[in-house]
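User: Run a structure prediction on this.
Assistant: Running it now.
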Amino acid sequence: MVGAVVAAALVAAVSFWPVVALAQERGERGVVDQQYRFWVARGAGVATETETGDNFRTGLRVMTLYDNSSGKGAVERGAIVISIDGERVRYDMLPGTWEISLVEDGLTFEASGQVQNGRGEQFDVSLNGYFGIHGPRGGMWSVEGTMTGGDIDYELHYVVLSHPRAPFVESEIQ
């Protein structure tokens, strides 16, 4: 089991290529303040059905907009995909339902919101992330959580790579 999660993390690390953009504002003396920052995260892991204990491969992909002044984040788009009996079931994140709080030290976060499958059924998701290590392609996180609703009750376990999107450089014509 652990080997599968580590292998999935390595595959995610190799396939992860961040794309970057920032919303910027001018502060005092014309210095550019980076008040908002987009973060892209991809992860792989295991979804465990609570009732039966069955394990399924799962992936997570999300793009968030983080407000440096408030310490809050908002999901712009994202998805959780769970492979059940050879079928990939996609659950799209519903952006307006998500709340993300990053602890002041930046080493942990809490996120909760809703996802929706292709049939329009909605499920509640709660995630807790713990920072592991920073590398050349971004940070690695351990993310634990749950997905519940209807007849679904999963425990989620991910290894996630996150990276800020590259800054937008404003040019001035003088």
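The domain at 2-19+33-164 is CATH 2.40.128 (Lipocalin).
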